[in-house]
Design brief:
CATH topology of chain A: Rossmann fold
CATH architecture of chain A: 3-Layer(aba) Sandwich
Strand content of chain B: 15-25%
Largest sheet of chain B: 6 strands, mixed, barrel
Largest sheet of chain A: 6 strands, mixed
Structural class of chain A: alpha/beta
Strand content of chain A: 25-35%
Order of helices and strands of chain A: EEEHEEHEHHHEHEHEE
Number of strands of chain A: 10
Bound molecules: adenosine-5'-triphosphate, magnesium ion
Helix content of chain B: 55-70%
Distance between the termini of chain B: 28 Å
Strand order of the largest sheet of chain A: 6-7-8-3-9-10
Radius of gyration of chain B: 32 Å
Number of strands of chain B: 10
Oligomer: heterodimer
Number of helices of chain B: 15
Chain lengths: 234, 404
C-alpha cells in the first residue's frame, strides 16, 4: 500500500515578486502511512497551518514534490486538484467553519451535494449515523448558530468523515474549546481512526493531547525539528 | 446544478434584507420598462390604427403626365391650348388585368380598385363639395372595413345606393333612405338613395366622403371601365415601403406607400421608439449596477463560506455558478414582481386616465411577448451583474478565503 502522503523538499514562499517575499517552509520531507494518527506541533508562526493547507491542497506549494495516495499533484489543473481534495481529504478547522445557512445534517452531507449534485438516501443515512456517532442525534436540523462550540466542532468532524475521506487534516480542532469539550472531540477523532482506519494529522498546541497521538512531528521555523513515535501507553 | 441553486437560494434567504432590496430594485426597473413599453406600444398602435383606419397601405395610381421631352414647341403650344382636357381624370383602364399581379405580390393581402374624384352633392337648394368614392364594397372592406364603420342603415352599395359620412348627413339634414344627387365636373348627374351612414373617425372625412358603387362612379367621373387608383393592404405594415418599391419595378405606375405619405408620423414614431429604447437601456444599466454592487458585497461577506465549500470539493466553476444563479434568481423573481407592478400601473392608467368622452384614451394591454421579453432581459441582466462577483468568488485559493 502506498504512503498516503509523501512530501519531498516542500517550500513555500509568500509575497513572491514583492519586497516582502518570505519563505515560510524551507524544504519539508514527510511521509504519513495509512491509518497513522499524528500530531503536528511547534511554536506559533512556525508554519504548521501553511503545511497543513499545502497537504490539504488548499493552497499551492512553491517548490518540492507532493504525492497524495501515490500520485503526484504537481502540475495538476485546479479542477483535478479540487476533485482529489473532495475525494480523499476531510478538514476540521479551529473555528469549525460550518456553512451557517445550512443545518447540521445538511452541512454533513454537503460534500455529496457538491460532488453528485444530489444527496442520496444512503448519503443521508450515513450523515445521520455520523451525527449520532458524534452525539448529535437530536441536533440534525439545527443551524450552526444554535449549537455550542463543541457541538459545532463535532458536526465539522462528522462532515470531514463524510464520503469516507482517507485523510483528515485538523488545524487546532480543540483550540477554541474548554478542556472537557476538547477531550470529547479528541476521543472522537481517535475512535474514527481506530474504527475506520482513517489517517489523521492534527495540529495542536496542547502537549497533553499530542502525547496521546501515535507520532509527534515538531515544526520550528519552517523546518522539521523532531519527528518521533510516542511510546505505546494506555 | 442542484448544488449551485441550493446554495444560491440559501445564500439569498440568509441575506434576506439585501435580497429583498435587490429584488425590489429589479422589480422597479422591470415595472418602469414594461409600463413605458406597453404605453408606447399602445400609443403607437393607436396612432397607426387611427391613421391607417381609412387609408390604404399602398396605393397604385397612373403616372403623373409629365411634359414629354419629345414635344416640339408647337406641340407644347397645342398642349397648352388643350389644357382643359387635362381635367379628365387619369385612370387605369386595365385594372382587372392588374389585380391578379398585385394580389400575388408578397406581403399584399388585398387589392381594391377605386374610382374617386371631386363632385358636388345636391339636395334641394343645398350643395356641398364632396369626395366621390366608387368601390366594390366587398373588396374595399378588406382594405379599410367600411361596412364595419356603418353606424346606421345597412352597409350596401348596389346600383343607385350610397353610403355617406355622418357629418355630411347632418349638414344636409338627411338620413338613411333619403335621396340626394351627385353632380361632377364633366356634367354627369345621378341620384342616390342613402343605404348607410358611416363614421370614419375623423370629422373632415365624415363631412366629405360619399361612397357609391364602382360603376356609378366610373360613369359620373367619366372614366368608363377604369379605376383612378388601386388600394392595397399589406400584412406587414412596416414592410409597406419595400412592397411598394418592388411594385414600382414591376408596373409602370405610381406606387405610394403609407410610409411615404405619412413620413412625419413615421419619424415621430421612430423618435418614440428610440426614447423607449434609451429608457430600457439606462434602466437595465441601473439594475445591473444595483445587483452587482449587492453581490460584490455578498462575495466579500461570504468569503469564508466560499473557502469552506471549495475545501469540501466545490470547483471554481461551481462557485462561479452559485453567484450567477443568485443573479438569475434575483432577476427572475424581480421581473415577475415587476410585471405584476406594471400591470397594476397599466390598470390604474386605463381606469383613471380618460378622454373627454369618458373612454380610456387608448387601449393598452401588456402583451405576453413584451412581458416575456422584459423578464428574459431582467434575468439576463441579473446574470450579467453576477459575472464579476462570481469571478471574484472563484479566484480565491480556499486557504486564503478561510484564513479571513
Ligand atoms: N497569506 C500569507 N501571506 C503572507 N504571510 C503569511 C501568509 N500566511 C501565513 N503567513 C506567514 O507564514 C508564517 C507561518 O504561518 P502559519 O499560519 O503557517 O503558522 P502557524 O504555525 O500555523 O502559527 P499558529 O500556531 O499561530 O497558527 C507566519 O510568519 C505567517 O505570518
Ligand atoms: Mg496555525
Amino acid at each position: 500500500m502506498p504512503a498516503i502522503i509523501e512530501l519531498q523538499g516542500i517550500r513555500k514562499s509568500y509575497g513572491i515578486g514583492t519586497s516582502v517575499e518570505t519563505e515560510v517552509l524551507h524544504g519539508i520531507d514527510l511521509t504519513l502511512q495509512p491509518g497513522e494518527f499524528a500530531a503536528l506541533i511547534g511554536p506559533s508562526g512556525s508554519g504548521k497551518s501553511t503545511l497543513l493547507n499545502i497537504i490539504g491542497l488548499l493552497e499551492p506549494m512553491t517548490a518540492g514534490d507532493y504525492r497524495l495516495g501515490g500520485i503526484s499533484v504537481k502540475g495538476l489543473a485546479d479542477d483535478d486538484i479540487t476533485a482529489r481534495r473532495g475525494d480523499m481529504l476531510g478538514f476540521v478547522f479551529q473555528f469549525h467553519h460550518l456553512v451557517p445557512a445550512f443545518t447540521a445534517l445538511e452541512n454533513v452531507v454537503m460534500p455529496h451535494l457538491i460532488r453528485d449534485g444530489k444527496v442520496s438516501d444512503a448519503a443521508l443515512r450515513e450523515g445521520r449515523a455520523l451525527l449520532a456517532k458524534v452525539g448529535l442525534a437530536d441536533a440534525l436540523h439545527k443551524k450552526p448558530a444554535e449549537l455550542s462550540g463543541g457541538m459545532q466542532q463535532r458536526v465539522a468532524i462528522a462532515r470531514a468523515l463524510a464520503r469516507g475521506s482517507a485523510l483528515v487534516l485538523a488545524d487546532e480542532p480543540t483550540g477554541n474549546l474548554d478542556t472537557k469539550s476538547a477531550d470529547d472531540v479528541f476521543v472522537l477523532l481517535r475512535e474514527f481512526n481506530r474504527e475506520r482506519g482513517t489517517t489523521f494529522l492534527i495540529v495542536t498546541h496542547d502537549p497533553r493531547l499530542a502525547a496521546r497521538c501515535d507520532r509527534i512531528i515538531e515544526l520550528v521555523d519552517g523546518q522539521i525539528a523532531a519527528d518521533r513515535p510516542v511510546a505505546a501507553q494506555e | 446544478m442542484r448544488f449551485e441553486f441550493t446554495v444560491a437560494l440559501r445564500f439569498l434567504r440568509e441575506g434576506r434584507f439585501q435580497s429583498l432590496l435587490i429584488i425590489f430594485g429589479v422589480a422597479a426597473g422591470v415595472a418602469v420598462v414594461t409600463y413605458i413599453s406597453a404605453l408606447v406600444e399602445g400609443l403607437q398602435g393607436n396612432t397607426i390604427q387611427k391613421t391607417l383606419g381609412n387609408q390604404a397601405h399602398v396605393v397604385v395610381k397612373p403616372r403623373e403626365e409629365v411634359a414629354r421631352p419629345s414635344l416640339s414647341a408647337t406641340d407644347a403650344r397645342i398642349a397648352r391650348d388643350v389644357q382643359p382636357r387635362a381635367q379628365r381624370l387619369r385612370s387605369i383602364d386595365n385594372w382587372s388585368g392588374l389585380l391578379p399581379l398585385l394580389e400575388r405580390t408578397p406581403n399584399v393581402v388585398a387589392a381594391s380598385p377605386m374610382a374617386t374624384g371631386a363632385a358636388l352633392a345636391l339636395r334641394g337648394e343645398a350643395s356641398k363639395s364632396i369626395a366621390l368614392v366608387g368601390v366594390e364594397l366587398e373588396r374595399y372592406d378588406r382594405i379599410v372595413d367600411l361596412s364595419g364603420k356603418a353606424v346606421k342603415g345597412v352597409p350596401r352599395l348596389v346600383a343607385g345606393e350610397a353610403m355617406i359620412g355622418t357629418e355630411l348627413a347632418r349638414d344636409f339634414g338627411v338620413d338613411v333612405g333619403d335621396r340626394f344627387s351627385v353632380q361632377t365636373a364633366v356634367g354627369a348627374t345621378e341620384v342616390f338613395k342613402i343605404a348607410a351612414l358611416v363614421d370614419l373617425g375623423n370629422r373632415e372625412l365624415n363631412r366629405r366622403q360619399v361612397y357609391v358603387g364602382l360603376r356609378s362612379a366610373q360613369s359620373l367621373l367619366n372614366v368608363p371601365g377604369g379605376a383612378t387608383n388601386i388600394d392595397l393592404k399589406v400584412a406587414e405594415l412596416f414592410e409597406a415601403e419595400n412592397t411598394a418599391a418592388l411594385l414600382r419595378r414591376q408596373v409602370d405606375m405610381e406606387v405610394e406607400s403609407w410610409m411615404q405619405t405619412n413620413a412625419q408620423l413615421l419619424s415621430a414614431l421612430n423618435a418614440q421608439t428610440i426614447s423607449t429604447l434609451l429608457i430600457r437601456v439606462f434602466t437595465s444599466i441601473v439594475v445591473v449596477l444595483g445587483i452587482a454592487s449587492v453581490l460584490v458585497v455578498s462575495v466579500v461577506q461570504k468569503r469564508k463560506e466560499i473557502g469552506i465549500l471549495r475545501a469540501m470539493g466545490a470547483t471554481r466553476r461551481q462557485m462561479t455558478q452559485v453567484f450567477l444563479a443568485q443573479g438569475a434568481i434575483v432577476g427572475l423573481i424581480g421581473s415577475v414582481a415587476g410585471t405584476m407592478l406594471a400591470n397594476l400601473l397599466l390598470w390604474l392608467f386605463s381606469t383613471f386616465v380618460k378622454g373627454s368622452d369618458g373612454q380610456p384614451l387608448f387601449v393598452i394591454s401588456l402583451s405576453f411577448n413584451l412581458a416575456a421579453g422584459v423578464a428574459l432581459g431582467a434575468t439576463l441582466c441579473g446574470i450579467l451583474a453576477a459575472v464579476l462577483p462570481a469571478l471574484r468568488a472563484a479566484r480565491l485559493d480556499p486557504a486564503q478565503a478561510i484564513r479571513i
